[in-house]
Amino acid sequence: MTNPTIRTAWRRCAWLCGALLSLALPAAQALDAAQDIVVIAHSDFDQRGMTPAELALIFRRTELVDARGVVLVPVNLPGTHALRVAFSRALFKQSPGDMEAYWNERYFHGVAPPHVVTSVEAMLRFVASTDGAIGYVPACAVDERVRVVARLHLREGAEALRCE
Amino acid sequence: MVCEDAITMKRTTHAPRRAVLMRAVALCALCLVQLHAQAFDALAGASYEFGRGLTLPALNLELRGYTTLHVEDLEGEAANAQWHDLSLFAIWSPAPGWQLFSEIEGEELLADDHRGLNTDDATVEIERLYLDHAVSSRATVRAGRFLTPFGRWNQIHADPLVWTVTRPLVTVITLPDHVTGVMVYGSVPLTHDSIEYSAYVDASSEFDPHPGRAPFEDYHLPGLSNDMEHAVGGQLRYHFLDERAQLGVSYASFVVERGRGHHHAVGLDGLYTWHRYELSSELTYRANVAQPGRDDWGGFVQLVAPLVQQLYAVGRVEYYSSGVLLEDARRGTVGLTWRPLPALSFKFEYHDGTDKGLLPDGIELSCGVLF
Question: Residue A4 sits in which domain range?
Fold first, then answer.
């Protein structure tokens, strides 16, 4: 026989834990989403939920046109920008500097690295106004001008995701 | 009166000439202004970055290139220095999805050897010239003259991109380094990795204006041809471990100009990079259909290790057994490569092998820069 007082205490405790969890989960999810780099494209771009392998082909410039036949224009931030470094590490597991040898080889075949813009706002404007453009911004910076096509979760370097 | 008439006459005959002259000057000035304006328009937005070339967005044109200086001191030969390569790339994108690529290469433009300072061996040729059209996200069609997609080295053989001054024998002698024909190529993403493919048909005998006259790079191979007559082939390349590793399989069925029959070649190549270390290898087997027993096979293994900052040590061993050469070739190469900037490299190497006729033992140095 269990003491009714103890049973009631257990129930209250379980209820309290449940309530706390239900409050904490969305907060954790929100925190989780804040750790994301959002990959954005022009609003006419018709692919969503792109995989890292698909994104890597575009940002390595081995995939040159999309399914509609529109020329893809990957866009980067400058090589020293914290978000560029975080994006490069998340997608390629390499820093922008580590990829110089790759771009030298592509250069030999007539392929230039992605176009570079100077800021997150410039990225949003360029992607919004250029059909085929694809770039990336912190989750907090994304707005209705562009279409979200993928999210890359950062395990470290979340300070790169602060909005300007 | 006579004098006045004469002056009037003179005026009347000179006036139209002067008017024509004035009009011509005005027209020239207008043309110059127009040309200047057009040149100004063409240069609008132009940018140059060292190692990445000159971009002229108003013309959809990019101009790039690389150049190399060589110094060699080989056994049985006088030490010599050469301005070895000057390659100029022009990349023009006339319409979305279309790209024209040309590489004009000057070789051995200036030499300082036993003949003194000379330009006797200087040549200029169209190294590559092709049109690319991206027909879908997974396929691009290429037509023209391009590097044979067999193995990895042949497709990145420019001095600033490779770790040694000399090429491994297997990347030179097995099959011609250029294709003149049509190729389809592209990349297919997998879950984390990707596969790159290419398939080509060569018709050099129809399109090459100088068949059978292409020289071999680095090696002295008289009597052998570096030109396809016709060929079909392809390559599959698997990129994995976050692009740190590649595994390639190549196949070609071909007939060479002045060659000894129909050949089939199969190649396997690999690349693995880890914390600035690089291990690479290529293996090739070439069967001669018309003359059994005259097959070729060979390969190399190369290791690159970082020493301090951008200074690397390079070591390579290679072997080549040929039905064409008099004896099997073995060679070892050790060297140092310094890349102070991504687009600039200085190399020093010593190689020692059994194939003295192909390449005597000795020291070679080079300086290569992408501009």
Answer: 1-33
pLDDT tens track for B94-118: 999 999 999 999 999 999 999 999 9
Q: What distance in Å separates residue A102's CA from the closest CA in chain B? A: 10
Residue A72 confidence (pLDDT) above 80: yes
A127: helix, strand or coil: helix
Q: Is B350 helix (H, G, I), strand (E, B) or coil?
A: strand
- At A8, the pLDDT band (50, 70, 90 cuts) reads confident
Residue B73, H or E segment: strand B61-74
User: What are the tokens at B177?
Assistant: 């380094």
Tell me whether residue B220 is in a domain.
yes
Interface membership of B190 toward A (CB under 8 Å) = yes
Closest alpha carbon within chain B to A69: B136
**Shared domain check, A74 and A56:** yes
Q: Residues with Cβ < 8 Å from B311, sequence gap 6 or more?
A: B336, B337, B338
* Token pair recorded at residue A23: 């409050």
Yes or no: say if B129 and B90 are a contact pair by the CB < 8 Å rule.
no
- Which pLDDT score is estimated for B29? 81
Contact A73, A44 (CB under 8 A): no
A27 and A40 assigned to the same domain: no
Q: What is the pLDDT of residues A109-119, one digit of tens each?
A: 999 899 999 99
Q: Would the ipTM clear 0.85, i.e. be above it? A: no
- Option in B55, B193, B370 nearest A107 (CB): B370
Partners of A63 on chain B (C-beta within 8 Å) are: 137-138, 186-187, 189
Q: Is B55 on the interface with A (CB under 8 A)?
A: yes
* Closest to B256 measured CA to CA, from B290, B284, B231, B289: B231
Inter-chain touch B191–A51, beta carbons under 8 Å:
yes
Chain A CB within 8 Å of residue B54 CB: no
Question: Are A59 and A11 in the same domain?
Answer: no
Range of the domain at B143: 55-370
Q: How far is CA B131 from CA B90, B97, B166, B183, B211, in A?
A: 12, 10, 30, 10, 21
Q: Answer yes or no: is A159 within a domain.
A: no
User: DSSP letters along B11-45, please?
Assistant: HHHHHHHHHHHHHHHHHHHHHHHHHHHHHHHHHTT
Total domain count, chain A = 2
Q: Are A52 and A163 in contact (CB under 8 A)?
A: no
Contact B161 A104 (CB under 8 A): yes
Strands (DSSP E) contained in B190-295 are 194-202, 228-240, 245-256, 262-274, 277-288
CB contact under 8 A, A66 and B137: yes
Question: Is B91's Cβ below 8 Å from some Cβ in A?
Answer: yes
